[in-house]
Specification:
It is built from 11 helices and 13 strands. The longest helix is centred in the last third of the chain and has 25 residues. The two termini are about 20 Å apart. The strands form 3 sheets. A 5-stranded mixed sheet has the order 3-2-1-4-8, with helices on both faces. It has a 5-stranded mixed sheet with strand order 11-10-9-12-13, sandwiched between helices. It has a 3-stranded antiparallel sheet with strand order 5-6-7, with helices on one face. The chain is α/β, with parallel strands linked by helices. The protein is globular and about 65 Å long. About 35% of the residues lie in helices and about 20% in strands. It folds into 2 domains: about 120 residues, 2-Layer Sandwich (Nucleotidyltransferase, domain 5); about 180 residues, Nucleotidyltransferase, domain 5 (2-Layer Sandwich), CATH 3.30.420.40. A hairpin with a 2-residue loop joins strand 10 and strand 11. This is Glucokinase. InterPro entries: ATPase_NBD, ROK, ROK_cs. One of its GO terms (molecular function) is kinase activity.
Length: about 325
Protein backbone atom coordinates (compact mmCIF):
# COMPACT_ATOMS: atom_id res chain seq x y z
CA UNK A 1 0.00 0.00 0.00
CA UNK A 2 1.31 3.43 -0.94
CA UNK A 3 1.21 6.41 1.39
CA UNK A 4 -1.35 9.19 1.68
CA UNK A 5 -0.01 12.73 1.63
CA UNK A 6 -1.93 14.70 4.27
CA UNK A 7 -1.99 18.49 4.17
CA UNK A 8 -3.49 20.68 6.87
CA UNK A 9 -3.77 24.22 5.51
CA UNK A 10 -3.42 26.80 8.27
CA UNK A 11 -3.42 30.58 8.20
CA UNK A 12 0.29 31.30 7.71
CA UNK A 13 1.64 27.80 7.13
CA UNK A 14 0.57 24.25 6.42
CA UNK A 15 1.42 20.99 8.14
CA UNK A 16 2.33 18.11 5.85
CA UNK A 17 2.44 14.43 6.75
CA UNK A 18 2.75 10.98 5.24
CA UNK A 19 0.28 8.45 6.61
CA UNK A 20 0.12 4.71 5.98
CA UNK A 21 -2.96 2.48 5.79
CA UNK A 22 -2.84 1.85 9.54
CA UNK A 23 -3.00 5.52 10.48
CA UNK A 24 0.68 5.78 11.38
CA UNK A 25 2.28 9.14 10.66
CA UNK A 26 5.51 8.22 8.88
CA UNK A 27 6.94 11.72 8.53
CA UNK A 28 5.86 15.34 8.89
CA UNK A 29 7.10 18.84 8.19
CA UNK A 30 5.77 22.38 7.85
CA UNK A 31 5.52 24.67 4.82
CA UNK A 32 5.24 28.47 5.00
CA UNK A 33 2.57 30.09 2.83
CA UNK A 34 2.80 32.52 -0.01
CA UNK A 35 -0.79 33.74 -0.02
CA UNK A 36 -0.41 35.31 -3.47
CA UNK A 37 0.00 31.78 -4.88
CA UNK A 38 -1.25 29.47 -2.15
CA UNK A 39 -1.47 26.10 -3.91
CA UNK A 40 1.45 26.47 -6.37
CA UNK A 41 3.67 27.46 -3.45
CA UNK A 42 2.46 24.47 -1.42
CA UNK A 43 3.09 22.12 -4.32
CA UNK A 44 6.65 23.32 -4.92
CA UNK A 45 7.66 23.30 -1.27
CA UNK A 46 6.00 19.95 -0.52
CA UNK A 47 7.76 18.24 -3.42
CA UNK A 48 11.06 19.72 -2.24
CA UNK A 49 10.32 18.66 1.33
CA UNK A 50 9.50 15.09 0.33
CA UNK A 51 12.68 14.88 -1.73
CA UNK A 52 14.68 16.15 1.26
CA UNK A 53 13.45 13.24 3.43
CA UNK A 54 13.99 10.63 0.72
CA UNK A 55 10.41 10.15 -0.49
CA UNK A 56 9.78 9.50 -4.18
CA UNK A 57 6.52 11.41 -4.67
CA UNK A 58 5.55 9.75 -7.96
CA UNK A 59 6.09 6.20 -6.72
CA UNK A 60 5.24 6.33 -3.02
CA UNK A 61 2.27 8.70 -2.74
CA UNK A 62 -1.11 7.36 -3.91
CA UNK A 63 -3.63 9.97 -2.74
CA UNK A 64 -3.77 13.36 -1.07
CA UNK A 65 -6.07 14.49 1.74
CA UNK A 66 -6.38 18.23 2.34
CA UNK A 67 -7.95 19.71 5.47
CA UNK A 68 -8.83 23.39 5.70
CA UNK A 69 -10.92 25.59 7.97
CA UNK A 70 -14.20 27.08 6.83
CA UNK A 71 -17.24 25.97 4.89
CA UNK A 72 -16.00 23.15 2.69
CA UNK A 73 -18.11 21.47 0.01
CA UNK A 74 -16.58 18.04 0.51
CA UNK A 75 -18.14 16.43 -2.57
CA UNK A 76 -16.88 19.04 -5.01
CA UNK A 77 -13.76 20.06 -3.10
CA UNK A 78 -14.78 23.73 -3.16
CA UNK A 79 -14.03 26.13 -0.30
CA UNK A 80 -17.30 28.01 -0.14
CA UNK A 81 -16.00 30.39 2.51
CA UNK A 82 -12.84 30.55 4.61
CA UNK A 83 -12.55 33.84 6.49
CA UNK A 84 -9.00 33.31 7.71
CA UNK A 85 -7.66 32.70 4.21
CA UNK A 86 -10.06 35.08 2.47
CA UNK A 87 -11.32 32.38 0.12
CA UNK A 88 -14.79 32.32 -1.41
CA UNK A 89 -15.97 29.62 -3.84
CA UNK A 90 -12.37 28.52 -4.33
CA UNK A 91 -12.08 25.29 -6.35
CA UNK A 92 -9.32 23.77 -4.25
CA UNK A 93 -9.65 20.18 -5.49
CA UNK A 94 -9.53 21.24 -9.15
CA UNK A 95 -6.57 23.58 -8.70
CA UNK A 96 -4.61 21.08 -6.59
CA UNK A 97 -5.20 18.12 -8.91
CA UNK A 98 -3.83 20.07 -11.85
CA UNK A 99 -0.54 20.48 -9.99
CA UNK A 100 -0.19 17.37 -7.86
CA UNK A 101 -1.51 14.94 -10.52
CA UNK A 102 -2.97 12.72 -7.78
CA UNK A 103 -6.54 12.17 -6.50
CA UNK A 104 -7.35 14.99 -4.05
CA UNK A 105 -9.87 14.74 -1.19
CA UNK A 106 -10.84 17.96 0.59
CA UNK A 107 -12.41 18.10 4.05
CA UNK A 108 -13.10 20.64 6.80
CA UNK A 109 -10.30 20.63 9.39
CA UNK A 110 -12.52 19.96 12.43
CA UNK A 111 -14.16 17.03 10.64
CA UNK A 112 -10.70 15.72 9.77
CA UNK A 113 -9.56 16.04 13.38
CA UNK A 114 -12.60 14.06 14.52
CA UNK A 115 -11.86 11.32 11.98
CA UNK A 116 -8.27 11.14 13.17
CA UNK A 117 -9.37 10.55 16.76
CA UNK A 118 -12.00 8.09 15.54
CA UNK A 119 -9.45 6.11 13.51
CA UNK A 120 -6.46 5.84 15.83
CA UNK A 121 -7.11 8.11 18.81
CA UNK A 122 -9.24 8.19 21.92
CA UNK A 123 -12.51 7.75 20.01
CA UNK A 124 -11.57 4.49 18.27
CA UNK A 125 -13.56 2.54 20.87
CA UNK A 126 -16.82 4.30 19.94
CA UNK A 127 -19.21 4.15 17.00
CA UNK A 128 -21.04 7.41 17.75
CA UNK A 129 -19.42 10.60 19.05
CA UNK A 130 -19.87 14.34 19.06
CA UNK A 131 -16.53 16.07 18.61
CA UNK A 132 -15.76 19.63 19.71
CA UNK A 133 -12.61 21.50 18.72
CA UNK A 134 -12.42 24.59 20.92
CA UNK A 135 -9.58 27.03 20.38
CA UNK A 136 -9.70 30.62 19.08
CA UNK A 137 -12.87 29.46 17.33
CA UNK A 138 -15.20 26.52 17.81
CA UNK A 139 -15.72 23.74 15.30
CA UNK A 140 -16.83 20.17 15.52
CA UNK A 141 -18.15 17.04 13.92
CA UNK A 142 -20.69 14.28 14.37
CA UNK A 143 -19.81 10.64 13.81
CA UNK A 144 -22.76 8.30 14.11
CA UNK A 145 -22.80 4.52 13.57
CA UNK A 146 -19.20 4.69 12.43
CA UNK A 147 -19.81 7.31 9.76
CA UNK A 148 -19.01 11.00 9.60
CA UNK A 149 -22.12 13.12 9.09
CA UNK A 150 -20.76 16.04 7.06
CA UNK A 151 -24.14 17.34 5.92
CA UNK A 152 -25.40 17.78 2.39
CA UNK A 153 -22.59 20.16 1.44
CA UNK A 154 -19.97 19.37 4.08
CA UNK A 155 -20.93 22.29 6.31
CA UNK A 156 -22.00 20.25 9.36
CA UNK A 157 -20.04 20.86 12.53
CA UNK A 158 -19.91 24.67 12.62
CA UNK A 159 -20.94 24.51 16.26
CA UNK A 160 -19.55 27.92 17.14
CA UNK A 161 -22.10 29.77 15.02
CA UNK A 162 -25.84 30.02 14.75
CA UNK A 163 -27.68 32.73 16.58
CA UNK A 164 -30.24 31.99 19.23
CA UNK A 165 -30.49 31.26 22.90
CA UNK A 166 -26.97 30.13 23.80
CA UNK A 167 -25.84 33.53 25.14
CA UNK A 168 -26.98 37.14 25.04
CA UNK A 169 -23.84 38.96 26.18
CA UNK A 170 -21.54 39.12 23.18
CA UNK A 171 -22.05 39.66 19.42
CA UNK A 172 -20.35 37.33 16.96
CA UNK A 173 -18.04 38.20 14.08
CA UNK A 174 -20.36 36.18 11.80
CA UNK A 175 -23.01 38.87 12.26
CA UNK A 176 -25.44 36.80 14.33
CA UNK A 177 -26.31 37.19 17.99
CA UNK A 178 -26.42 34.37 20.50
CA UNK A 179 -23.57 32.29 19.02
CA UNK A 180 -21.49 30.01 21.25
CA UNK A 181 -18.07 31.09 19.94
CA UNK A 182 -17.79 34.69 21.24
CA UNK A 183 -18.20 33.50 24.84
CA UNK A 184 -16.91 29.91 25.02
CA UNK A 185 -13.88 29.92 22.71
CA UNK A 186 -10.55 30.60 24.41
CA UNK A 187 -10.67 34.16 23.08
CA UNK A 188 -14.23 34.45 24.32
CA UNK A 189 -13.31 33.19 27.78
CA UNK A 190 -10.52 35.77 28.12
CA UNK A 191 -12.90 38.48 26.94
CA UNK A 192 -15.54 37.39 29.45
CA UNK A 193 -13.03 37.77 32.27
CA UNK A 194 -12.05 41.26 31.06
CA UNK A 195 -15.63 42.46 30.65
CA UNK A 196 -16.65 41.04 34.02
CA UNK A 197 -13.81 42.82 35.82
CA UNK A 198 -14.57 46.05 33.95
CA UNK A 199 -18.21 45.94 35.01
CA UNK A 200 -17.52 44.68 38.53
CA UNK A 201 -14.45 46.47 39.83
CA UNK A 202 -14.50 44.56 43.12
CA UNK A 203 -15.10 41.10 41.68
CA UNK A 204 -13.64 38.46 43.99
CA UNK A 205 -11.45 36.97 41.23
CA UNK A 206 -9.96 40.27 40.04
CA UNK A 207 -7.20 40.40 42.66
CA UNK A 208 -5.53 37.33 41.09
CA UNK A 209 -4.70 39.33 37.93
CA UNK A 210 -2.14 42.13 37.65
CA UNK A 211 -3.74 43.78 34.63
CA UNK A 212 -7.44 43.05 34.31
CA UNK A 213 -7.65 44.91 30.99
CA UNK A 214 -5.21 42.64 29.16
CA UNK A 215 -6.07 39.09 30.20
CA UNK A 216 -5.26 36.09 27.98
CA UNK A 217 -6.45 32.50 28.22
CA UNK A 218 -2.84 31.44 28.81
CA UNK A 219 -2.65 33.79 31.80
CA UNK A 220 -5.95 32.47 33.16
CA UNK A 221 -4.59 28.91 33.00
CA UNK A 222 -1.34 29.83 34.71
CA UNK A 223 -3.00 31.78 37.53
CA UNK A 224 -5.66 29.11 37.95
CA UNK A 225 -3.06 26.39 38.52
CA UNK A 226 -0.67 28.53 40.59
CA UNK A 227 -3.49 29.31 43.03
CA UNK A 228 -4.85 25.75 43.27
CA UNK A 229 -7.91 26.35 41.10
CA UNK A 230 -9.69 28.97 43.26
CA UNK A 231 -13.47 28.86 43.31
CA UNK A 232 -13.72 32.51 42.20
CA UNK A 233 -12.05 31.69 38.86
CA UNK A 234 -13.94 28.40 38.52
CA UNK A 235 -17.22 30.32 38.66
CA UNK A 236 -16.11 32.62 35.82
CA UNK A 237 -15.01 29.63 33.74
CA UNK A 238 -18.40 28.02 34.33
CA UNK A 239 -20.13 31.18 33.17
CA UNK A 240 -18.01 31.45 30.02
CA UNK A 241 -18.45 27.77 29.17
CA UNK A 242 -22.19 27.70 29.79
CA UNK A 243 -23.15 28.40 26.12
CA UNK A 244 -20.89 25.54 24.99
CA UNK A 245 -22.32 23.22 27.61
CA UNK A 246 -25.87 24.16 26.62
CA UNK A 247 -24.97 23.35 23.01
CA UNK A 248 -23.56 19.98 24.08
CA UNK A 249 -26.74 19.13 25.96
CA UNK A 250 -28.82 20.01 22.90
CA UNK A 251 -26.69 17.76 20.69
CA UNK A 252 -26.74 14.92 23.20
CA UNK A 253 -30.50 15.08 23.56
CA UNK A 254 -30.89 15.08 19.78
CA UNK A 255 -28.29 12.45 18.79
CA UNK A 256 -27.66 10.24 21.86
CA UNK A 257 -23.88 9.73 21.29
CA UNK A 258 -21.70 7.30 23.21
CA UNK A 259 -19.22 10.05 24.09
CA UNK A 260 -18.25 13.69 23.77
CA UNK A 261 -14.67 14.16 22.55
CA UNK A 262 -12.91 17.46 23.24
CA UNK A 263 -9.88 18.87 21.44
CA UNK A 264 -8.11 22.21 20.99
CA UNK A 265 -6.57 24.75 23.34
CA UNK A 266 -9.48 24.58 25.79
CA UNK A 267 -8.42 21.07 26.79
CA UNK A 268 -5.42 22.54 28.62
CA UNK A 269 -7.90 22.74 31.50
CA UNK A 270 -7.67 18.94 31.45
CA UNK A 271 -9.75 17.11 34.07
CA UNK A 272 -11.13 20.38 35.43
CA UNK A 273 -12.80 20.99 32.08
CA UNK A 274 -14.56 17.63 32.26
CA UNK A 275 -15.57 18.35 35.84
CA UNK A 276 -17.08 21.72 34.90
CA UNK A 277 -19.02 20.23 31.99
CA UNK A 278 -20.34 17.28 33.97
CA UNK A 279 -21.53 19.47 36.84
CA UNK A 280 -23.06 22.23 34.69
CA UNK A 281 -24.73 20.10 32.03
CA UNK A 282 -27.19 18.75 34.58
CA UNK A 283 -29.11 22.02 34.18
CA UNK A 284 -29.94 21.04 30.60
CA UNK A 285 -30.34 17.25 30.73
CA UNK A 286 -32.37 14.62 32.53
CA UNK A 287 -30.29 13.51 35.53
CA UNK A 288 -30.07 9.88 34.46
CA UNK A 289 -28.55 10.77 31.07
CA UNK A 290 -26.23 13.39 32.55
CA UNK A 291 -24.79 10.83 34.97
CA UNK A 292 -24.15 8.36 32.15
CA UNK A 293 -22.38 10.94 29.98
CA UNK A 294 -18.85 10.02 28.86
CA UNK A 295 -16.45 12.88 28.10
CA UNK A 296 -12.94 12.27 26.77
CA UNK A 297 -10.07 14.55 25.83
CA UNK A 298 -8.48 13.91 22.43
CA UNK A 299 -5.07 12.27 22.48
CA UNK A 300 -3.55 12.78 19.01
CA UNK A 301 -2.88 16.48 19.57
CA UNK A 302 -1.77 18.46 16.53
CA UNK A 303 -1.51 15.33 14.38
CA UNK A 304 -5.21 14.43 14.43
CA UNK A 305 -6.17 16.60 11.46
CA UNK A 306 -3.50 15.15 9.18
CA UNK A 307 -4.34 11.59 10.21
CA UNK A 308 -8.06 12.25 9.70
CA UNK A 309 -7.62 13.81 6.26
CA UNK A 310 -5.62 10.72 5.25
CA UNK A 311 -8.42 8.47 6.53
CA UNK A 312 -10.91 10.47 4.48
CA UNK A 313 -8.78 10.04 1.35
CA UNK A 314 -8.18 6.33 1.94
CA UNK A 315 -11.90 5.61 2.13
CA UNK A 316 -12.90 7.47 -1.04
CA UNK A 317 -15.97 8.81 0.83
CA UNK A 318 -17.25 5.25 1.19
CA UNK A 319 -17.77 5.68 4.91
CA UNK A 320 -19.98 8.70 4.43
Amino acid sequence: MKLVLAIEIGVTSSKVGLVNQYGDLQAKFAVDHDLTRLIPNLFEKIIDGLEAIGINYEEEVEKIGIAIGGYVDHMLGIIRYSANLNLTNYHLKEVAEELFKKPIFVINDANASALGEFWTGVAKQYDSIIFYYVDNGIGGAVITEGKLAPGARGFAGEFGHGGGVFQKNYPCSCGLTGCVEPMSSILGIANHFKVTFKNKKNHSAAHFFKNVEDITFKEILEIYEENNQPEEITVLLQEALDPLIMHMATMINALDPEAIILAGGLTQLDEKLIEIIQSSIKKYMIDMFAEELTIEIAELGNDSTMIGSAYYALNDWKIF
